[in-house]
Each structure stands twice: as C-alpha cells, then as structure tokens.
Amino acid sequence: xxxxxxxxxxxxxxxxxxxxxxxxxxxxxxxxxxxxxxxxxxxxxxxxxxxxxxxxxxxxxxxxxxxxxxxxxxxxxxxxxxxxxxxxxxxxxxxxxxxxxxxxxxxxxxxxxxxxxxxxxxxxxxxxxxxxxxxxxxxxxxxxxxxxxxxxxxxxxxxxxxxxxxxxxxxxxxxxxxxxxxxxxxxxxxxxxxxxxxxxxxxxxxxxxxxxxxxxxx
Length: 218
Ligand SMILES: [Zn+2]
Fold this sequence. Notes:
The chain is α+β, with helices and mostly antiparallel strands. Helix content is 32%, strand content 21%. It has one domain: Cathepsin B, Chain A. A hairpin with a 2-residue loop joins strand 5 (167-175) and strand 6 (178-182). The longest helix has 14 residues, at 65-78. The structure holds zinc ion.
C-alpha cells in the first residue's frame, strides 16, 4: 500500500495538491512559444524565474522542464521551493547540464541531477531506464512520483505521438486507468495539469526518468 504522504490531503495513489509550475514564466505565452515561434526570452515575467538576466532566462528556459518538475516535487513536500533558475544553477554545477563548444546544451543528464537533489534537497531519487507503464504504476503505488521522459507533443494526446522522449513531465499518480501528470510546457491549463490513459501515455513515453519520493526527507 502507498505510504501516507505527510504533504497530501488525498489518499490512495495520487498526490494532491501538486501546484503546477511551468518552465516558461508566463504560462499564457506557451501556446505562442511552442506553436507560433514566439521568442521565449521575450517574456515580461522572466525575473520570477530567478535568472540573473533576461538573456540567461531566454537561453535556459527551454531546457528547464526537469527543473519545473523538481520545483513541483519540493513545493509539494516542503510547502515552498527555490526559484527555477536556482535549481538549474545547482544542477549545472553538479554536471546535470553540459554546454557543448557550439553553444548547444546537453541535458538533463540524470545521474548528476540525482546526486544534486539527494545532496542538496535531501530528496530520495533514482534513475530508471527500464520503465513500462506497469512499472511506472508500481512506483506510483509506493507513494513516489516519476519525472518521466515523454515526447513534448503529449500536450496534444489526441494526435498520434511523433516520437518518444526528449521532454520531462511529472507523473503524480494514477486513478481509474488514467495517469495524472504536470506538464511544464503545457499550452493550456488542462494540458499543464493533465490526465491521459496509460496506453496513450505509453506511446509518448521513452521508458526512462527519475523516480522521486516526496513522502520523506533523506
Ligand atoms: Zn503527497
């Protein structure tokens, strides 16, 4: 059975509430950013991210899906959490993002990220690269959440998945055959706080991610 989560008023296999966090500072801009070529750096709310400059925010917000997931987990467990870019700075220092000579970014790299969240945030976490939806559900049944690698087009699950993986969402539980998750780049409120059938999720899911346990501190 699921261990009782001290942060939850819910019972069973779904953490709630989990307040949504998007990787872009202004959620209402996301549809234009992801489908209409809007420059994500052109966001009047950029400073709430904790970035040191608009340029830094613009360069990194597109890579911050995993940081938004972590921020949601910490806020659920602790009631508050550091700003997005503070988490990103820590992850970068730990080696979770690597800037290539050509300026592109490799990351999120799971192993150093896990070390960072364990050491700095006392959050029990571990990498899994062998998850099918049954194993995913089994982790959720143990009270864990899963930062899961899915195709970014999971925000439009009514369409066929163009591929698997490349973007991170936070799976917070399941109920009645539906997986409940938070998508840091959802383009509408109902795709930020989303539910999809397990079989549909599977078509977007790369089978890997980071399992975290918000029910306790290390
Ligand atoms: Zn909980």
